[in-house]
Amino acid sequence: MIKCDFLVIGSGITGLTFAQKAAQKGSVVIVTKKEKSDANTNYAQGGIASVFSPDDSFDLHIKDTIKAGDGLSHKEVVEIMVKEGPQLVKELMDFGVEFTVKSSERGKNVLDLGMEGGHSRRRIVHSKDLTGKTIETALLNAAKSYGNIKMLENHTAIDLIPDNSDKPKRCVGAYIFDNISGKIIRIYSRITLLASGGAGQLYLHTTNPSIATGDGISMAYRIGVPVANMEFIQFHPTSLYEKEETERAFLISEAVRGEGAFLKTIDGRSFMGNYHPMKSLAPRDIIARAIDAELKKSGEKFVLLDTSPIETKRFENRFPTIHNTLSEKGIFPTSDSIPVVPAAHYLCGGIVSDVNAKTSLTGLYAAGEVAFTGIHGANRLASNSLLEALVFSERAFKCAKKEFKKFNFILKRIDTLERKRKMKVEKNIIFHNRDVIKKIMCDYVGIVRKESRLVEALKRIKTIEEEVNNNFEYSRIFPELIELRNMAQVAKLITYSALTRKESRGLHYIIDYPEKDDKRWKKDTILSKDMMK
Ligand SMILES: Cc1cc2nc3c(=O)[nH]c(=O)nc-3n(C[C@H](O)[C@H](O)[C@H](O)COP(=O)(O)OP(=O)(O)OC[C@H]3O[C@@H](n4cnc5c(N)ncnc54)[C@H](O)[C@@H]3O)c2cc1C
User: Fold this and answer.
1) Measuring CA to CA, which residue among 75, 132, 122, 21 is closest to residue 369?
2) DSSP codes of every residue in 444-499
3) Domain 2-231+348-406 CATH assignment equals 3.40.640.10
4) What is the pLDDT at residue 167?
5) Backbone dihedral region for residue 464 (phi beyond 0: left; psi -120 to 50: alpha; all else: beta)
6) What are the catalytic residues?
7) With 90 as the cut, is the pLDDT of residue 348 above it?
8) Measured over all CA atoms, what is the biggest interatomic distance in the chain, rounded to whole angstroms?
9) Is 173 a residue whose pLDDT tops 80?
10) What is the pLDDT of residues 23-56, one digit of tens each?
11) How confident is the model at residue 296 (pLDDT cuts 50, 70, 90)?
12) How confident is the prediction for the chain on average, in pLDDT?
């Protein structure tokens, strides 16, 4: 058993920024299920959207975010993010993050701001195309200097501990599985922050690394905290198409289109003009659906990203990772076009949390990709997620530092988790069910949805969920089983939310209801355990 003031689940940008501030007030334990740098954060390429340019303004960034959100963004929360963002981006530089700069007309070093789809101004602060890695590395280095941060790598959170199992009023910690020793440990905390990221791994094609299995959402939902807008899954339009299936698709950042690259069919026809006036810089949902439509028409497996408008030196300098990765695969950008397909990328919904990242359960906070703050609405504006993570981990800290001393440790147990188990479900069954979920989500709950397919998907997912829950009750626990239990539940939440919303809006496109219906559906889809009984 471990006791700490602040338990942080996740070591991406959200968990690490919160932990370093919290460590100045009390003891911190970070649990992270693989290596500490294994997080979506580490793979972010484009950058962080924030207002720094003299020709930009908070109003413009707010307007662009709300426009992308397609009627569902919560304006007051967007305002908070946009206005509090620049200060926190500067703070990242104090943590040692080096962003790319250029020389201004007056010979001063200024941030080299990138352009991305849906933004009306250049406002993407970046570190070449390695922004996430640069941030993650700097934050992990800075974390080393705090003696009171204990980092538990290869530890998978299983479930949150309630003060009372019938009617939980407070979260008092979490059950954690030590992946190496195979032991289950209890960590008791005054404050618990879920910073466990998204759920891209529920889909067959995804840009997300293997950690993104929706664990935090599932844990919060199981303890009775509502989740919202799970139907809004953002598909990144341009992930690299490869013949061999990979665990994680390599992303070709939107910033490449921001620099002039454009989409075309295999036979060379530029098609985005037929779908949107902003062509290849249209919002992501429009581009993903346009590619989906073109692929369905042609029967091909990919479209091409033509990078010839970008000067070769500029490409190499601005996108070194993309350039090197592609070159290793025999693709030479600016002379060759890049084969691309859409892939699941970002979850706009998540655990309902307020402007201070507090959930409905006392002592439990959620921030970053795992949370639903209302900012992204029906579609996320590119590069707003790292910004959201920064702003709401800061707000979580400011609120938690005021309240943590009010909470005593409550040493509760969950009897069902502590039960002795003799049987061990075979791994091949776990992998089989995992693959089935990923395929169902891709084929039935993907970019273009249909009511009858969603009904079928729900039926199949429920069968898998039942089997997994049964296994979970009697089998010895291990990480793949923990993840599968969460994946089945989150897949159900996504599919159920998609079935609930009887309109098409933002990222949710359903052919039975192709129009937006503001009268009935200009609202969030909120689900809680009580409602689903
Ligand atoms: C390829 C790619 C490119 C992107 N590019 C951009 C971009 O340019 N700009 C932008 O704003 N956003 C971008 N995003 C999105 C952005 O990176 C994420 O939304 C953001 O990093 C999320 O940060 P986080 O701290 O909330 O979660 P993450 O960084 O995903 O961290 C989650 C952490 O939780 C841990 N965890 C999960 N479950 C458990 C468990 N059960 N027990 C213990 N630990 C657990 C993980 O191991 C990990 O450490 C991109 C995402 C991807 C995948």
Assistant:
1) 132
2) HSSSEE-HHHHHHHHHHHHHHHHHHHHHHHHBPP-HHHHHHHHHHHHHHHHHHHHH
3) no
4) 87
5) alpha
6) 284
7) yes
8) 72
9) yes
10) 999 999 999 999 999 999 999 988 999 999 999 9
11) confident
12) 95
Domain chopping of the chain, boundaries:
2-231+348-406, 239-342, 421-522
19 lines ligand 1 (CB under 6 A): no
Residue 53 burial (CB count, 10 A): 14
Residues in the chain: 533
CATH class name, domain 239-342? alpha beta
Question: 139 C-alpha vs ligand 1 centroid, how far in Å?
Answer: 14
Contacts of 273 (CB under 8 A, 6+ apart): 279
- Decide if 382 contacts 119 (C-beta within 8 A): yes
- What gap in Å lies between CA 364 and CA 362, rounded to an integer? 6
Ligand 1 pocket residue status of 151, Cβ below 6 Å: no
Distance between Cα 245 and ligand 1 center (Å): 22
Cα–Cα dist 174/223, whole Å: 11
- Nearest residue (CA) to ligand 1, atom 10: 383
Q: Do the domains at 2-231+348-406 and 239-342 have one common CATH topology?
A: no
Judge if pTM exceeds 0.85.
Answer: yes
Which of 92, 196, 203, 239 is the pocket-test mutation for ligand 1 (most atoms within 8 Å of CB)? 196
Class of domain 421-522 (CATH, top level): mainly alpha
Which residues fall within 8 angstroms of residue 380, CB to CB, at 6 or more apart?
68, 69, 234, 284, 346, 348
Kindly state the average pLDDT of the residues 216-237. Answer: 97
Summarize pLDDT for 48-97 with one digit per residue, the tens: 999 999 999 999 999 999 999 999 999 999 999 999 999 999 999 988 99
- What pLDDT score does 533 carry? 65
Backbone angles phi, psi at 30, to 5 degrees: -105, 125
Pocket perturbation via mutation, ligand 1, pick of 40, 126, 194 by most ligand atoms within 8 A of CB: 40
* 240 in contact with ligand 1, CB cutoff 6 A: no
* Residue 184: pLDDT band with limits 50, 70, 90: very high
